[in-house]
């Protein structure tokens, strides 16, 4: 959420505020932890697939030689 505030000098500042639809802090922390775990699992999966395709590519090239 953006909060636009007028300062005493007449200029404006913008503040960013993070809000959560989850009111219970423990629930919000568990939800955040699950998102971070999912992100880590996804990163590992993507990196594993990249390594697999590199391995397949290298072995296919040597197979044709």
Overview of this protein structure:
The model has no long low-confidence stretch (mean pLDDT 84). This protein has a domain at 21-65. It has a two-stranded antiparallel sheet with strand order 1-2. 62% of the residues lie in helices and 15% in strands. The radius of gyration is 24 Å and the shape is elongated. The chain is an alpha+beta fold.
Structure summary:
62% of the residues lie in helices and 15% in strands. It is α+β, with helices and mostly antiparallel strands and 65 residues long.
Instruction: Let me know the number of strands.
Output: 2
Q: Specify the biggest β-sheet.
A: 2 strands, antiparallel
Order of helix and strand elements from N to C terminus = EEH
Proportion of beta-strand residues = 15-25%
Overall SS class: alpha+beta
Main features:
single chain, 65 residues, alpha+beta, two-stranded antiparallel ribbon, 1 helix, 2 strands, 62% helix, elongated
Please outline the helices and strands.
Elements: E1 2-6, E2 12-16, H1 25-64
Antiparallel strand pairs: 1-2
């Amino acid at each position: 959420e953006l909060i636009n505030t007028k300062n005493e000098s007449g200029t404006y500042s913008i503040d960013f505020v993070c809000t959560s639809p989850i009111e219970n802090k423990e629930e919000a922390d568990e939800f955040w932890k699950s998102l971070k775990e999912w992100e880590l699992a996804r990163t590992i999966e993507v990196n594993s697939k990249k390594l697999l395709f590199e391995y397949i590519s290298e072995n296919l090239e040597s197979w044709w030689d």
